[in-house]
């Protein structure tokens, strides 16, 4: 009924959310990583559950999972890709909040890399696949939601990413200010949707930001009916 629909507008929808920074091994004890805490992804998972969706969180971090959320733990971009590949076709949407490392070691050393008489170390890196561009290109009915973390020219870079990733919605995040974004509990983002005016959300807690993003996802979903 209408009342139920208003309370749980995403009932029956299956959402995939990625969270945290991927960790790309250099050797058995070291990895290349980044500053993503995973908090935004977990907040989005919670907000999606509040809206009635079934949520699977593909996560690289060990945070407390929101109630009702299924968590799949991964480390690398490749593991994340595999976990998504197994679930994307049966899903109704993908929220790509993870900070996927752009590069990984061209070769992972099988033994711990040792120092060598004060000499430096040169690492050969190779580019990781762009996961969201892959799923954006192959999507059917799924809603694909991307993030963009930028330190400069936020909107210009974000618009380009929205196109490149064939996303339905992009959340642009200025990571140059230390009071928002990486690691902290609050965030200030701009929502960018093809053919719609950009919406600047105010500086909010991550859960409030997540609820505002989910509101927008609900609008996207409603527009197709
Ligand atoms: N992303 C992804 N796979 C990658 C890199 C990024 O799926 N190999 C996703 C991120 O999860 C995010 C979006 O793409 O949703 C944008 O990530 P970002 O790092 O801002 O952009 P990149 O496309 O990696 O471009 P660059 O870092 O060079 O600015
Ligand atoms: Ca990147």
Automatic annotation (TrEMBL):
Pathway per the UniProt entry: Cofactor biosynthesis; coenzyme A biosynthesis; CoA from (R)-pantothenate: step 2/5; Cofactor biosynthesis; coenzyme A biosynthesis; CoA from (R)-pantothenate: step 3/5
Keyword Nucleus: no
Cofactor(s) needed by this chain: FMN; Mg(2+)
Keyword ATP-binding found: no
Protein name: Coenzyme A biosynthesis bifunctional protein CoaBC
Region (Phosphopantothenate--cysteine ligase): 15-225
Residue positions binding CTP: 102, 112, 129-132, 147, 161, 165
Coiled coil spans: none
Organism: Weissella coleopterorum
Example of a GO biological process term: pantothenate catabolic process
The record's free-text note on cofactor binding: Binds 1 FMN per subunit.
Cellular component terms per the entry's GO annotation: phosphopantothenoylcysteine decarboxylase complex
Protein task: Catalyzes two sequential steps in the biosynthesis of coenzyme A. In the first step cysteine is conjugated to 4'-phosphopantothenate to form 4-phosphopantothenoylcysteine. In the second step the latter compound is decarboxylated to form 4'-phosphopantotheine. Catalyzes two steps in the biosynthesis of coenzyme A. In the first step cysteine is conjugated to 4'-phosphopantothenate to form 4-phosphopantothenoylcysteine, in the latter compound is decarboxylated to form 4'-phosphopantotheine.
Top-level taxon of the source organism: Bacteria
Ranges where the DNA/pantothenate metabolism flavoprotein C-terminal domain occurs: 10-219
Residues of the full protein shown: 178 to 402 of 402
Entry EC no(s): 4.1.1.36, 6.3.2.5
Gene Ontology molecular-function annotations: FMN binding; metal ion binding; phosphopantothenate--cysteine ligase activity; phosphopantothenoylcysteine decarboxylase activity
Keyword field: Decarboxylase, Flavoprotein, FMN, Ligase, Lyase, Magnesium, Membrane, Metal-binding, Multifunctional enzyme, Transmembrane, Transmembrane helix
Residues of the signal peptide: none
Reaction catalysis annotation: (R)-4'-phosphopantothenate + L-cysteine + CTP = N-[(R)-4-phosphopantothenoyl]-L-cysteine + CMP + diphosphate + H(+); N-[(R)-4-phosphopantothenoyl]-L-cysteine + H(+) = (R)-4'-phosphopantetheine + CO2
Family that this chain belongs to: In the N-terminal section; belongs to the HFCD (homo-oligomeric flavin containing Cys decarboxylase) superfamily. In the C-terminal section; belongs to the PPC synthetase family.
């Amino acid at each position: 009924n209408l009342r139920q629909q208003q309370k749980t507008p995403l009932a029956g929808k299956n959402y995939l959310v990625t969270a945290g920074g991927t960790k790309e091994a250099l050797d058995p004890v070291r990895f290349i990583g980044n500053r993503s805490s995973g908090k935004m992804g977990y907040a989005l998972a919670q907000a999606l559950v509040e809206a009635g969706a079934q949520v699977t969180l593909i996560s690289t971090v060990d945070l407390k999972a929101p109630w009702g959320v299924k968590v799949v733990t991964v480390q690398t971009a490749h593991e994340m890709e595999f976990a998504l590949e197994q679930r994307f076709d049966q899903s109704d949407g993908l929220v790509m909040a993870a900070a996927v490392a752009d590069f990984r070691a061209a070769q992972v050393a099988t033994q711990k890399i040792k120092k060598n008489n004060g000499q430096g170390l040169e690492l050969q890196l190779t580019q990781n696949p762009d996961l969201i561009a892959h799923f954006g290109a192959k999507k059917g009915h799924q809603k694909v939601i991307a993030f963009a973390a930028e330190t400069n020219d936020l909107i210009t870079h974000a618009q380009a990413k929205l196109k490149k990733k064939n996303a339905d919605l992009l959340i642009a995040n200025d990571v140059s200010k230390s009071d928002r974004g990486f690691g902290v509990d609050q965030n200030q983002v701009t929502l960018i949707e093809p053919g719609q005016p950009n919406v600047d959300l105010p500086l909010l807690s991550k859960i409030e930001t997540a609820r505002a993003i989910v509101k927008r996802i609900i609008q996207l979903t409603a527009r197709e009916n």
